[in-house]
Amino acid sequence: MSKFLIVYNPKAGKNSKRKRLEDVVSVLSEGGKNDVETFVTEKRADATDRAKSAQGYDAIAVVGGDGTLNEVLNGILSLEESVRPAIIYIPGGTTNQTAKAFGLPTDLKGVAALLQEGEFRPFDLGSFNGRAYIDVCAFGYGSESSLRTSQRMKNKFGFFAFVLNQIKYLFRLKRVPMRIRCDGETYIGEYVFGNLVNTAMVSTFARLKSVGVRMDDGKLDLVLIDDVNNFFGLLAAMLRVIRRRFNKKKVYLISGKKFELEFFGDRSFLLDGERVTATDHATVEVLPHAFRMLVPKE
């Protein structure tokens, strides 16, 4: 018998696609085979607070979006590795980007099959000034529009709420002056797009596994677009990312264990879909094999 804790966010995703808590309990209990407890979040950081005292469970089943998963991961990192529960991610957010990156099912029938056929494997996390993230630390185009997409819009339009805002921001491109140091190299530019990815995906449109990006390799990967002035320049650069044609002129792919970012004043970043801020400087580094998660067998 396994002991599971379900952390359930009732506000994540569109109303029509939310999973019922009782259905999740039924799947995880496997007909009474497993002991299942539940915790329903009410406000921001509830999931983190509950996960901090989750020693004694074999796994935490996170039912919600990437933000809820982020909170749980930051909670379990406070526990000693020997008593740190594994993660079962049952996505119920708006875009479910992390689930796509790991090849996870989004329906309960698929989750039931994964419990029987999947395996728990160790994966890396990223850390932004001490706060962990599983998917991406983003700045520039895409992150700004996502930060300004309201929960009401996400609930009503789902993924297309992000698309609508991103179209609007195509005509408001802002370049971010920044110095980036990584593994002895220094990069200085005015970047319109930056994604420090832990998974092998850039937003929802580009997969990087074919160029050696993995979620368990002890590294983070920075995708940068530099010195673009307009929509057409950004589109051309994005197409290079999609085709995985990187260079060291305008479209970069930089792998490393630690990145030092230097910029002017306050700067907002998107961390697994949530806003974080830093002033003048941020340190982003990898946390190798920081947690275990149930995923399909390779």
Features:
single chain; 298 residues; alpha+beta; Rossmann fold; Tumour Suppressor Smad4; nine-stranded antiparallel β-sheet; four-stranded parallel β-sheet; 9 helices; elongated
Explain what this protein looks like in three dimensions.
- This protein is α+β, with helices and mostly antiparallel strands and 298 residues long.
- It folds into two domains: 3-117, Probable inorganic polyphosphate/atp-NAD kinase, domain 1 (Rossmann fold, 3-Layer(aba) Sandwich); 132-288, Tumour Suppressor Smad4 (Sandwich), CATH 2.60.200.40.
- The protein has nine helices and 15 strands.
- It has helices at residues 21-29, 46-51, 66-76, 97-102, 108-117, 143-147, 151-157, 159-169, 231-242, and strands spanning 3-8, 35-40, 59-64, 86-91, 119-128, 131-133, 136-140, 176-182, 185-197, 201-202, 206-207, 220-226, 251-256, 258-271, 274-295.
- Strands 5, 6, 7, 8, 9, 12, 13, 14 and 15 form a nine-stranded antiparallel β-sheet that branches. The protein has a four-stranded parallel β-sheet with strand order 2-1-3-4, sandwiched between helices.
- The longest helix has 12 residues, at 231-242.
- The chain is elongated.
